[in-house]
């Protein structure tokens, strides 16, 4: 190699380029240029157990669905090696395994023309270190960002996320259905069976809510938004915003949720009356989210009043009348 320091120089600039807007495209284009490759792409091992496209250099016409399927067939071999070279009749392929503390990635390089093994080994090692640093820092940032919009106890979107969503809806003409609900007698559970039991009540309810109103679904090997989301906006207060269900579907799902919550096992030695109170409303015309909330909140109050009266509980003292 004419310049032994060149791989280190390129590695340094991979980090610099990655920090720019649309940075990974710049960084991968730098790898492509250095290796005189036809295309370079980066894949991430996702939550459903497959590699999916994470980043690509800007100017490429690759069929990424085909490449993704090919890559996942080789997943075990990739995990066993630092990098894997595959030579076909018309296409030389270099697969480089990159790991951070929390995730794993594969860099896919097509038609690599640098055949000197010594030079290639040096560059791959530098490349792995540079991308590992950049990806690790991004994951730290994403964790901090996620923590600001996620509820730590349940994993649901929190009040901050809820506010951002409703602000966006207020500036749109989207139609949606709104459900506000809270847990029946959470204070009684906390006071009589411990806050650990209360947390169980909250967590298991959140799991039920996510089952009926998932934010994402897995379809055709892709993670897709559903148009629904569940938010924990207070201690025992949850909100569901759904753009993808009819009002009838929302009402039916909430009834099923109510039945499942009744059967939650708190792990205590006696039967405890559990449940939810809820109110449902729909956006009419271009109503502001607060107006939609107020309609649902009024129905929640009526439902709560009726349930306490029917079951014979005093809402203030939490005792049977």
Individual helix count: 10
Look at the helices and sheets and give the structural class: alpha+beta
What's the alpha carbon Rg, rounded to whole Å? 26 Å
Average pLDDT value?
A: 86
The CATH topology of the largest domain is what?
Alpha-Beta Plaits
Low-confidence stretches: 317-321
Biggest pleated-sheet summary: 5 strands, antiparallel
Q: SSE order, as H and E? A: HHEEHHEEEHHEHHEEEEHEH
Question: Percentage of helical residues?
Answer: 40-55%
Overall shape: it is elongated
**CATH H-level superfamily of the largest domain:** Reverse transcriptase/Diguanylate cyclase domain
Distance between the termini: 88 Å
Strand tally: 11
CATH class of the largest domain: Alpha Beta
Structural overview:
47% of the residues lie in helices and 21% in strands. The protein is α+β, with helices and mostly antiparallel strands. The protein folds into two domains: 142 residues, 2-Layer Sandwich (Beta-Lactamase), CATH 3.30.450; 153 residues, Alpha-Beta Plaits (2-Layer Sandwich), CATH 3.30.70.270. It has a five-stranded antiparallel sheet, with helices on both faces. α1 packs antiparallel against α2, α1 packs parallel to α5 and α7 packs antiparallel against α8. The C terminus is likely disordered.
């Amino acid at each position: 190699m004419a310049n032994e320091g060149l791989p280190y120089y390129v590695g340094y600039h991979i980090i610099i380029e990655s920090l720019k807007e649309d940075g990974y495209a710049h960084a991968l284009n730098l790898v492509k240029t250095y290796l005189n490759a036809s295309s370079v792409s980066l894949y991430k091992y996702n939550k459903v157990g497959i590699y999916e496209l994470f980043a690509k250099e800007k100017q490429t016409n690759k069929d990424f669905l085909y490449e993704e399927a090919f890559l996942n067939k080789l997943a075990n071999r990739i995990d066993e090696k630092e990098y894997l070279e595959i030579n076909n009749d018309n296409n030389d392929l270099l697969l480089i395994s990159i790991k951070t503390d929390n995730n794993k990635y594969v860099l896919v390089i097509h038609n690599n023309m640098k055949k000197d093994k010594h030079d290639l080994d040096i560059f791959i090692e530098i490349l792995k270190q540079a991308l590992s640093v950049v990806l690790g820092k991004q994951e730290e940032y994403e964790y901090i960002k996620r923590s600001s919009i996620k509820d730590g106890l349940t994993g649901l979107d929190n009040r901050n996320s809820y506010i951002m969503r409703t602000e966006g809806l207020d500036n749109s003409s989207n139609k949606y259905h709104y459900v506000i609900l809270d847990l029946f007698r959470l204070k009684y559970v906390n006071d009589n069976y411990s806050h650990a039991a209360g947390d169980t009540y909250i967590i298991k309810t959140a799991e039920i809510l996510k089952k009926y109103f998932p934010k994402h679904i897995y379809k055709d090997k892709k993670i897709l938004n559903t148009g629904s989301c569940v938010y924990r906006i207070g201690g025992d207060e949850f909100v569901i915003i759904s753009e993808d269900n009819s009002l009838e579907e929302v009402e039916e799902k909430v009834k099923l949720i109510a039945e499942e919550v009744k059967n939650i096992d708190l792990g205590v030695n006696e039967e405890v009356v559990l449940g939810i109170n809820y109110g449902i409303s729909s956006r009419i015309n271009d109503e502001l989210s607060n107006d939609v909330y107020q309609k649902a909140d009024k129905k929640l109050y009526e439902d709560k009043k009726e349930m306490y009266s029917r079951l014979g509980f005093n809402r203030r003292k939490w005792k049977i009348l």
